[in-house]
Amino acid sequence: MSKLGIPGLAPELEAELTEGMARVESLLLSHIQGDYPLVEETSRHLVAAGGKRLRPLLTLLASHYGDKNKFGVIESAVVCELTHVATLYHDDVMDEAKLRRGVESANSRWGNTVAILTGDYLFAKVSALLADIGPEAVRLQASTFERLVIGQIMETQGPRAGEDPLEHYLGVVADKTGSLIAASARFGAMVSGAPAEVKETLTVFGEKIGIAFQLADDVIDIASESHQSGKTPGTDLREGVPTLVTLNVMKSTSAADRELIELLKAPIKDEVVVAQVLNQLRTHQALEQSREQLQQIARDARTALGPLPVNDVTGALFSLCDAIIDRSA
């Protein structure tokens, strides 16, 4: 497995991506610097904690279908990662999360107000980069940010009367996660001057792989006994957040699942009960059903790549689909 998280990368492509990601990392850290030490400290908190960097990596991969050396490629990769990190500060406040990317969440360390304002600060730094890239980049960011916000509102509001909760959830995931990953791929193609059909293909692929990425995290939150997702296993249970696995359980009509379903309807605050529910879910058919649904969406993502030319970059995108499935195995 490559250090970039994609198996089987061609050596030359891996070297180019590694160099590009080093430039992304450098700009990420330098761009959040400011005149206020506390703001810089809080901003660096999650940026320096790392993360998978899937979004900027996808931007760099997509740029290889055009001129990967054009101005704006590295900048747009940073835009995507900073946007993602900014939303994490806000998400952690809403979810009252204690841990993020394996470190104490900003809201736990500095309080909700500072965490929210840090997210806002990062959005301001994103805007400065976008202004240099150009109006088309600003429009893409605006439409993406709109979907991020709508997705969060839909999640907060919950499904409408008569709406299938699982379908509602998949719509939320498409907006909250898929939209930014789709934009990450589109940025790379757009800024590098890739052909229009390639840009559209990569956008469709990005959304599907983004949905798969979140659903893999849903499975990991239940199935993993480690901090593989950067969160404590069972975090979603403690917060009462519906996920692919729990929504599949909720569809059950079996009398044996009634007590479990009642527990899943609200946040579980008792750690003993969390451990018991995790054990039940790890042997429940809903977990395997969730894995099958995840694999189908990953297959859809692979199918979306069909129109792309056969080359090392397209091969890397296919491998990325495999890597996401492997995370949840």
From TrEMBL:
It holds the Pfam family polyprenyl_synt. InterPro entries: Isoprenoid_synthase_dom_sf, Polyprenyl_synt, Polyprenyl_synt_CS. The keyword DNA-binding does not apply. It comes from the Bacteria. CDD domains: Trans_IPPS_HT. One of its GO terms (biological process) is isoprenoid biosynthetic process. Keywords: Magnesium, Metal-binding, Transferase. Coiled coil: none annotated. Its cofactor is Mg(2+). GO terms for molecular function: metal ion binding; prenyltransferase activity. Belongs to the FPP/GGPP synthase family. This is Heptaprenyl diphosphate synthase.
